[in-house]
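Crash report, auto-generated. Payload:
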Amino acid sequence: MDRVIIFDTTLRDGEQAAGGMLSIQEKLEIARQLEKLGVDVIEAGFPISSPGDFEAVRLIAKEIRTPVICALAHAQPEAVDRAWEAVRKAEHPRIHVFLSASDIHLLYQLKKSREEILGMSRDMVARAKKYTEDVEFSPMDASRTEPEYIYQILEAVIAAGATTVNIPDTVGYAIPDEFGGLIEGIFQNVPNISQAIVSVHCHNDLGLAVANSLESLKRGARQVECTINGIGERAGNASLEEIVMAFKTRQDFFNLTTNINTTQIYRTSRLVSELTGFMVQPNKAIIGANAFRHESGIHQDGIIKMPITYEIMDPRTVGIPASSLVLGKLSGRRAFKERLTELGYSLSEKDFSHAFSVFKELADKKKEISDRDIESLIAQELRAVSEVYHLDWVQVSCGDRGIPTAAVRLIAPDGQVLADAALGTGPVDAVYKAINRLVGVPNVLTEFTVKSVTEGIDAIGEVLIRIESEGTPYTGRGADTDIIVASAKAYMNALNRLLAAKKAS
Ligand code: KIV
Ligand code: ZN
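Recovered output after restart:
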């Protein structure tokens, strides 16, 4: 069986998704989880694009030792130099140079000739090669580029030292058979192609990113660029979990394998969703809430008799926790610790004590606490950004008579207790207005989603919001059995991120 290199670009192309901004610490946390997942390459960012991106790549390169750490650079000397500066401390550094190749981009965007593009590509690969042995090159918009020109570029960059040549379907335009044909053509027409790994990078504008990637891998590509939950620019990138599980489930067809520890897929997906604020749609393959749920009576009957009747994958292979009820009010520290260990968490004594006291508070309100409740609790308590303002309490009055009213009390950074009240069109609006009166940072609420973590009337409600201030989006998340309190927590979470970012800049 041939092994496919999994190149994860969640932290670069994934973060390019509109509104998906991550802090440096959040990127590091995702990188640690990607290492546990077993990805071969982490594209950690585009260092020249911002000081924050540079710092994130630098820290990831310093800490994460097993995968290759890759930094993106457009084909300009200063971008290549900056990429190297960021990635040089990595155990296995890579520089990824890209430049547009299609006539559409050359004519309307770059205003350069094919010869100039060829020269720049070759020169920038050669420049990167002086820094590191591991250099990747991407002719951007390859799927809309004349194949003969792609062959010429690839031959030139391989001669200049590229060890991986990546074929991007930048605008998600390709159709599987056609894209597979392009890959086959590359193997047949680029004389020195055996000196490089052929990679593919597909976008999902027509919903074909995974299909295009699989077809190319079937026809000889051996690296695939993908993201967790398929997040990325516009409609996103090919989804890592779908590609990996296609190989695992249909080994008979592909005869390809990866280094991925599939039992880490679910946790990685949850982490990326929590930190980016992009919820996973319920019907999303592999990791959606309904992916392993059977509704029809005939299907349920089959599953009870023999799961293979209607289940092509065992949910445990992707690490989906059993939704069995586990803990309750009488559960002690030991039972809670054991459950956390089973779910893959290892907390410091301080974090554990904090999580346990929150668990006890929850157990007072909710009779049975499931694995999903515990996950939500950990996400909420341990990944909280350091607070500038702390929500002390919130009280609302609402209904179909009278005006919704909210009172809130916050603890300010200097320890001062601040309280105020406001009216609103609804209870959440009233709470947000009361908080605004105290914090006083102008922003616009652009997204508000509420969902329940588990079934049942006493379920935890999870609220996810996005606010925008001076053109920058900030996400916030809050969880509580009371959705108004969860909404207040989510807003405070987003405001604290906004204030921390302002302070940092
Ligand atoms: O979609 C694209 O073309 C890219 C390149 C930078 C590889 O993301
Ligand atoms: Zn892309």
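Post-recovery validation: The first helix runs from residue 10 to 14.
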